[in-house]
UniProtKB/TrEMBL annotation:
Keyword Signal: yes
Protein name: Tripartite tricarboxylate transporter substrate binding protein BugD
SUPFAM superfamilies given in the database record: Periplasmic binding protein-like II
Entry annotated with the keyword Signal: yes
The organism of origin for this protein: Pararoseomonas baculiformis
UniProt similarity note: Belongs to the UPF0065 (bug) family.
Key words, A-Z: Signal
Origin: domain of life: Bacteria
Gene3D superfamilies attached to this UniProt entry: Bordetella uptake gene, domain 1, Periplasmic binding protein-like II
Membrane spanning residue stretches: none
Length: 329
């Protein structure tokens, strides 16, 4: 066989696989340069903490740096847009959370497709939320907190990370459940929002245990409940919202990894493989556990499981958002 015949045969088999020649050539060596992992919320916050742990472990597996870029704003949609519109070559990926389940309904106008703009690569972890306040709030249980909120009206402040974030979702559900309209102060992530709670300048924040655990344990914030079905293993003294008197109100944050739509299948498969390797690493499991979370199973860290879960989550939140009218526009 001549060299030309061999090249022709190789090109034909790549075409049969539906891969552009360039992408096929790249995927066999992928990655050959650093990968950017976009995190759509502020550095130092809960999504950032999970993303940086993952990026570090994936770098070890891929043999190339996975560099975190915090593209923040508009409730996580700017970061998602950055990835949906990036070159689909595997060098720009997104670590996002439950926002991927609510944004498709909450945002009726976006400059990117919040569902078909991505290839899901695998789920990462689930993190419970907690309702916390500045430590000197005059309430000692959820019932007292809710009556204080009612008595204060819009003088009561609630911080969040913008419409589309988990803190905003949880804050809106809480406010709707008791029929109050507090003043909402949006930040680019709950990392900066937490600083305002710690400084006593903002009243309430719904936030993930990956950030709140240390402040709850040190007494720097007051905690009232977790909007979960069951109590949190690492913070068992905190009642669920239902136990504390507010049933029918649950938000748990899940995280997933994405590539832009059209990223070649072999590259997506390599990224999924790397995600799985990262979640198996004992030091990752240990560090996740130290921040109160557990990596998902290897079966859930797959594109198929991620797509199923994500699709079901969009369907789950659609009627809730429609009923509360919590739209971004
Ligand atoms: C963050 O990382 O800042 C949070 O996950 C944002 C949020 O969803 O509240």
């Amino acid at each position: 066989m001549t060299q030309i015949t061999r090249r022709l045969l190789a090109a034909t088999s790549l075409a049969a696989l539906g891969l552009p020649r360039q992408a096929g050539a790249q995927s066999s060596a992928f990655p050959t340069r650093p990968i950017t992992m976009v995190i759509p919320f502020a550095a130092g916050g809960p999504t950032d903490v999970v993303g940086r742990l993952l990026a570090e472990a994936m770098s070890r597996d891929l043999g190339q740096p996975v560099v975190v870029e915090n593209t923040t704003g508009a409730g996580g949609t700017l970061g998602a847009q950055r990835v949906a519109t990036a070159r689909p070559d595997g060098y720009t990926i997104l670590l996002h959370h439950i926002g991927m389940g609510v944004i498709p309904t909450m945002y009726r106008r976006l400059a990117y497709d919040p569902v078909n703009g991505f290839e899901p690569l695998g789920l990462v972890t689930e993190v419970p939320m907690t309702v916390v306040t500045r430590k000197d709030i005059p309430a000692n249980n959820l019932t007292e907190l809710l009556s204080y909120m009612k008595s204060q009206g819009d003088r009561f402040n609630l911080a969040d990370a913008g419409i589309g974030s988990s803190s905003a979702l949880c804050g809106a559900l809480l406010s709707n459940a008791i029929g109050v309209k507090p003043t909402v102060i949006p930040f680019r992530g709950t990392g900066p929002a937490m600083q305002e709670i710690l400084g006593g300048r903002v009243d309430l924040l719904c936030d993930q245990t990956t950030q709140t655990t240390e402040h709850i344990r040190s007494g720097a914030v007051k905690v009232f409940a977790t909007p979960s079905r069951t109590r949190i293993g690492t913070l068992p003294e905190i009642p669920t919202t239902a136990e504390a008197g507010l049933p029918g109100f649950e938000v748990t944050v899940w995280h997933g990894l994405y590539a832009p739509k059209g990223t070649p299948a072999p590259i997506c498969a390599r990224l999924t493989q790397s995600l799985q390797a990262a979640l198996r690493e004992p030091r990752v499991i240990e560090r996740f556990s130290a921040i109160g979370t557990t990596p998902v199973s290897q079966d859930d860290a797959t594109a198929e499981a991620h797509r199923r879960f994500w699709t079901a989550d969009i369907a789950k939140w659609k009627p809730v958002i429609e009923a509360t009218g919590s739209y971004a526009d």
